[in-house]
Amino acid sequence: MTYRTSPLTSAERRDYDTWSPRSACQGKDPEMFSTRSRIPEAKAVCDTCPVRRSCLSWALETDQTGGVWGGLAEQERLQLQLRIAA
Ligand code: SF4
What integer pLDDT is reported at residue 3 of this predicted model? Predict the structure, then answer.
């Protein structure tokens, strides 16, 4: 997971703080979620994550473009957004 370059709003930060403490990636190497060759490893962690849906929703709503969020890589989230918009 790589955060977008523009800062989070306070509402976005508050929302993030409601689900992120229960994430399976707490304490994991953050590079795993932002390094292309480690996407399968990151997705395996996401598969065990109790807040996966919240993570994915938040990433889509706040335009997080880089890395793995909610078990989906950047291109997969883009494809999902295009399907939602169609
Ligand atoms: S779904 Fe994946 S990236 Fe999102 S909080 Fe869970 S482990 Fe982290």
Answer: 79
pLDDT of residue 63: 92
pLDDT (0 to 100) of residue 74: 94
- 20: CA distance to ligand 1 center in Å? 8
Centroid of ligand 1 to alpha carbon of 34 (angstroms):
12
Ligand 1 centroid to residue 56 C-alpha, Å: 8
Pocket residues: Cβ below 6 A from ligand 1: 1, 23-25, 33, 45-46, 49, 51-52, 55, 68-71
Per-residue HEC secondary structure of 22-79 comes to: HCCCCCCCHHHHCCHHHHHHHHHHHCCCCCHHHHHHHHHHCCCCECCECCECHHHHHH
